Amino acid sequence: MPAMMIPRPPLAELEGKAQWLALLLLAIGLHMFEAALPSLGPWFKPGLANLVTLLVLVMMGPRAAVAVAIGRVLVGSFFIGTLFTPTFVISMAGGLTAAVMMIAAWRFIPGISLIGISLLGALAHMLAQFVTVESLFIQQGVLYYALPPLLLLSCISGWINGALASYISARLTHEL
Amino acid sequence: MLQLLKGGKTDRLLLLVALSAIVFSWFVIQAQISAGPAMAEIYHGQILLATYPLPQAGEPEQRFQVDGELGETVVVLDKQGARITSSPCSTQHCVLSGAHRHAGDIIACVPNHILISIRGKSASGYDAIVE
């Protein structure tokens, strides 16, 4: 009688999971790197972790992208020591809103490239942070007075990150 | 890579719309808050605790202890502007953000629910407005 074998999933499925995990780890690393950047202020970050969400979206689809957005904030915040603090809530709201906005743009806006998707994601991320703070922690409309210059920075970082994502995804799929 | 930075037509259109909306809202906000003397408004959550004029050059600095969710935040107003010098929060982003004195600037300590907002430009004649 042959020994009982645990059935193994097909290689392609394993490869996909390994790729997703590698990108999740990259996103967690970038999340922690961005948290350690001192000079850019508490509101603005370059959005490199969101760039990974965008890459996962175009390579593996919306579900994988949302899972990376949630996973990197959860694990990244655990290592930084901000898990379940206001910083965590703001990061989660920003990351998830950006992911949902990028999925919507990717699905429904014809002719948009990764640059446009990244731009909308960056703007949604910044807006979501302020709405979260205003609704949960400091209920003051004056918070929004600080938004325009930060949104301007988001436009720049979103555009550059989108170009980077185009380059990286093209390299990953051997088009360049 | 530089070629990639150009983006497509749809991307450029989106950028144009976003920039127009941002610049328009910036002008509207600045027009609303730039008038009058330079003041620092100190909030805790939903409550406006106090409004103080920012000291001009030669005027003494002012120091306040503000009670928040976690404990005491120390706010200093001097000729450089308003800043938080001590906070019970773990991140210390509010302390590290330094002094601010331009209309529209904010200093927020989200964990402690403390916000300082700057409005106005010119020299002030008030001592304090407390609510």
Folded structure, characterized:
The complex is a heterodimer of chains A (176) and B (131). Chain A has 176 residues and is an all-alpha fold. Chain A has one domain (17-172): Arp2/3 complex 21 kDa subunit ARPC3 (Orthogonal Bundle), CATH 1.10.1760.20. Helices cover 74% and strands 0% of the residues of chain A. Chain A is built from 6 helices and no strands. Chain A has helices at residues 11-36, 48-60, 62-80, 86-108, 114-136, 147-172. Chain A is globular, with a radius of gyration of 18 Å. The relative contact order of chain A is 0.13. With 131 residues, chain B is α+β, with helices and mostly antiparallel strands. Chain B has 2 domains: 1-33; 35-130, N-utilization substance G protein NusG, insert domain (mini-chromosome maintenance (MCM) complex, domain 2), CATH 2.60.320.10. Chain B is 22% helix and 34% strand. Chain B has 2 helices and 8 strands, in the order H-E-E-E-E-E-H-E-E-E. Chain B has helices spanning 9-33, 93-96, and strands spanning 39-44, 47-53, 62-67, 72-78, 81-86, 106-109, 114-119, 129-130. In chain B, the strands form 2 sheets. Chain B has a 5-stranded antiparallel sheet with strand order 6-7-1-2-8, with no helix packed on it. Chain B has a 3-stranded antiparallel sheet with strand order 3-4-5. Chain A binds chain B through residues 38, 41-42, 81-82, 85-87, 90, 109-113, 115-116, 119-120, 123, 133, 137-140, 142-149, 151-152, 155, 159-160, 162-163, 166-167, and chain B through 1, 4-5, 7-11, 14-15, 18-19, 22-23, 25-26, 29, 33, 41, 43, 45-46, 48, 90-91, 93-94, 96-97, 104-106, 108, 110-111, 113-115, 117, 119.
